[in-house]
Amino acid sequence: MFRRLNPFRPPDHAVLSLEVQAKMPKNERVQGRFEVLVRHLLNRFLNNELMSSDGEITRAIQLAYVIALPGLVVALFLFPAYHSFPPLMGKRTFWLQVSDHYLYVMYSMVVMGVVTVYEWDMLFPDLMDVFVLSVLPIEGRKLFWARVLALVIFFALALLGTNSLGTIFLPMVADLPSLGVHLFAHAAAVIMGGIFAIGLFLALQGLLLNLLGGRMFRRITPLLQGASITILLTVAFLYPLLSRFLQALLSSGSVFARYFPPFWFLGIYERLLRGPSTLPIFKELARSGCWATSVTISLAIAAYPLAYRRRVRQLIEGSRAMNTSSWVTRPINRLLHATILRLPERRAVFHFISQTIMRIQKHRVLLAMYGGLGIAITVSEMISLTIIDDRLRIGVLSYGIYASIPILALWTVAGLRTALAAPIDRRGSWIFRVIIGRAGVEHLNGAKIWVAIWGFAVSLVAAVLLCMAAPALWRTPLDIACRMTVAAGLCLLLTDCLFLAAMTIPFTELRKTSIMEMPLVVVRYFVVFPLLVLMVVHSEMWLEVSVWRLIAVALAMTLAHLWLRWRYALRVQEKRLAYGFEDGDELFQRLGLGD
User: Fold this and answer.
1) Alpha-carbon distance 388 to 407, whole Å?
2) Residues 126, 17: contact at Cβ < 8 Å?
């Protein structure tokens, strides 16, 4: 033993050359077929079309850090509150501790729900899995169990990464008498909440796929993803409001408190932490949480094999292509062709985008994320809670009504611009260069028109719904004209600004991303956008005073739009003259087919 600790002892074996070492047999562990299959399917969750472009893996790693760190940051932020610093503050009261526990439970449910929706199309086999793996000498049952095990490993890693730091640091910061009990209660509550969210969306997808069939399910998938993201993010953004009224909500015994899923797992947290001495409402909520988790997991287990089989059969047999034209879109297209889409270049790119954007998983997920985020922020800004005569009342804030249209317009235009910048299979992009050469300004204007029209359409629908919900704020035609003018001008100007750097037809360029872009994204969405919304809200109130102010602002927006449009046309022309055809030799020799 002491000889082994001697640093000056001679080596046990002779020093071998690199050539000799390379020829020596290696005792590597041989992976079994099932293990290789599980590794492959697990890798597919991270390396699919959602992560296909350069730089997306780096962004995914950044996103993983962003998801994992809040548990630690919140715990460190709460340290002074739990340890009476400064001394005049006093220790954390019972209901404030409950609000802290609710934050961690809610966060686990929201993150795992978003992760499940994000991997929506990867939960079941796709064309690559069926037409590549099914022809290999692998049993169908082994393929099924390999995918199930890959799903379990993926969600377990996501659940562990989301909640591990919070589970360790919050009990240590809280410093309650029983640290072990607190650790167990925290871990059990957040894990059960995450499992419930995973099971809920797995069961929902499995049941709908069995009941509706593959073709109808594909039609409603974008709506389901958008609605799911909206609900999850709304729950997250309502935390500051609900945390201030937890005592009133849980003490009132309202239907909302009894059937709001995050409260179920908050009840599990408090029941495990405080034992039989906890409040009766927490005992009831804990029972609901246990039952809900059992039911969702049972439904997911029962529906998944049937949905898996049906999905594989549908991929093998194929399905009839969906007709995108209808009696609703045809008159709208005729009107657009007669007005703003008279030029063939605009019309071609406009319809190319319309027929492409909803076919790709990455674009659907991006639209669901941005749309859900915009609606969630709007709802959280509109809802207010007040206590009147010991009863909780839900109200609508006038500021939220004013801010709703600019918020939706901003996030809609930003989401559409991001989706158009994400490439699809670029091997066919050579056809655009063969037919039209480098894209001209009118081709690019077709994309801008598409984004501006959809941004204004979303704003118009929001205005109609808000007019029905709060008619008191839409008293006169001037009020309606002010909001519509602001929505149209905001969509136009924001589209012009976001497309200043766009020099190619959508879906045809591989955009290089960088680690340094993340701070710019944060500044854009969390600093510039809120300031812009605040300015627009005050402008709306200022415009309602006089019709002449409205005319002046409309004229200013029109002039700004024309100036930005002229600057954009100038930049596109300069870009075409600078490049010419000097970069096209390799493209036309290979036709982009070697990628």
Assistant:
1) 30
2) no
Stretch (H or E) spanning 384: strand 383-388
d(CA 412, CA 498): 12
Closest CA to 99 of 81, 117, 85: 81
3-state secondary structure of 409: helix
Residue with tokens 């500021």: 399
Q: Is the pLDDT of residue 61 over 70?
A: no
What span, in angstroms and rounded, lies between the C-alpha atoms of 51 and 221?
20
The 10 Å Cβ neighbour count of residue 126 is: 15
pLDDT over 60 (residue 425): no
Per-residue confidence band for 484, with pLDDT thresholds at 50, 70 and 90: confident
* H-type alpha helices, 213-279: 214-237, 239-244, 246-252, 255-258, 261-274
Listed as own residue / partner, the contacts of 551-558 with beta carbons closer than 8 Å and 24 or more positions apart are 553/485, 553/486, 553/489, 554/485, 554/489, 557/485, 557/489, 557/492, 557/493
- Amino acid (one-letter) located at 303: A
Which is nearest to 273 in space by CA: 108, 83, 94, 91? 94
Gap between the Cα atoms of 544 and 554, Å rounded: 13
280-317 helix and 261-274 helix, angle to the nearest 10 degrees: 130
Pick from 89, 69, 68: nearest CA to 79:
89
Kindly report the average pLDDT of the chain as a whole number. Answer: 80
Contact call for residues 124 and 144 (beta carbons, < 8 A): no
Evaluate whether 117 touches 201 at the Cβ level (below 8 Å). yes
- Rounded distance, CA 346 to CA 441, Å? 9
**Cβ neighbour number for residue 461 with a 10 Å cutoff:** 11
Q: What angle do CA 122, 265, 304 make, to 5 degrees?
A: 30
Task: Classify residue 418 as exposed, middle or buried by CB count within 10 Å of its CB (0-12, 13-18, 19+).
Answer: middle
Nearest to 117 by CA among 365, 288, 301: 365
